[in-house]
Amino acid sequence: MATTRTTAPEFHRSTAIPSLELRRSCRENTCYRPHTHDVLSLGLIDEGTSVLTGALTGPVSLAPGDVVVIPPGHVHSCNPDAGRWQYQMTHLDAVWADDLTLAISGSTGVRVLRSPAVYGQLTNVNDAIAADRPAAELERECRQLAVMFGNAEREESVTVPTMPAPTDGHQALAERLQPVLHRLRYDDTTPAVDDLAELVGLSRYQLIRAVKQVTGLSPVAWRQNARILEARRMLRSGAAIADTASRLGFTDQSHFHRVFQAHVAATPGAYWG
Prior knowledge:
It comes from Corynebacterium glyciniphilum AJ 3170. Residues 175-273 form the HTH araC/xylS-type domain. The chain is of the alpha+beta class. The chain is built from 11 helices and 9 strands. A hairpin with a 6-residue loop joins strand 1 (7-13) and strand 2 (20-27). The chain starts with 6 loop residues before the first strand and ends with a helix. The model is unreliable at 1-6 (pLDDT under 50).
């Protein structure tokens, strides 16, 4: 039986601009379940092929040189197609530079860009993060990246459509589900689906369909994803792994470890360290 070779992921965070985070990783096996990020995320494929799921058009094949733009809150997963897959993922907090992130994410949702200029400049940004360059240099590289994204509209590129624009009915359903999502996020125990359905006057199956329609995930998957997003924030701020697991209501560290790895494709220790 062949063994699967993996390379431990590297995480780099800017001390000058804490909202910038970089991941560099190499995988050969399926490693991500559907998940979201709470910030703008830019993926860069260095080697091998992979498949992006979560686009309205269905799975999208990615190749070396592709740059993937994933807005906050978009359910997706990306896993190797066959063989060695080497990639980078850059996370930018929208609070840090709204004008910059708007220039990058635009109004088209998820995009896959095949532009050597964008690929090269995002590599420059990532190198600056990894080297922990001063804030002025990081901002200069990021703003140049925004220019490159604008120019890429005139180059060969692929745009992957995301979800349709929300309708009034969709917005009304999202507002109706807020008590459910709040309880899923903050209840230390795992709420029963029947109890959540009763909370908003829906049947069990109506609730499951409604939550998936609004969030792209089932109630249980949404709860796990939300807790892992919070776990990442806590670990980045210096919280201990055991304290993080306990405060977020995981039954034990082993449970926390399994769920974290399924979403992040890294252990809490590797991410925290």
